[in-house]
Amino acid sequence: MKCLICNTNYQGNECPNCKFPYIAFPGDAEEGIRRMKPQLDAYRRAFLERINLGVVSFFWKEQEGRLVLDREEVRPIGSGKELCAGTVWLKQPFARLPEAETLAIRLALTVDGETRELSVSLPNRLEPELQQLGAEMNEQMQLRLLLRNRSGSSASEWIPLFT
Question: What does pTM read for this prediction?
Answer without folding.
Answer: 0.86
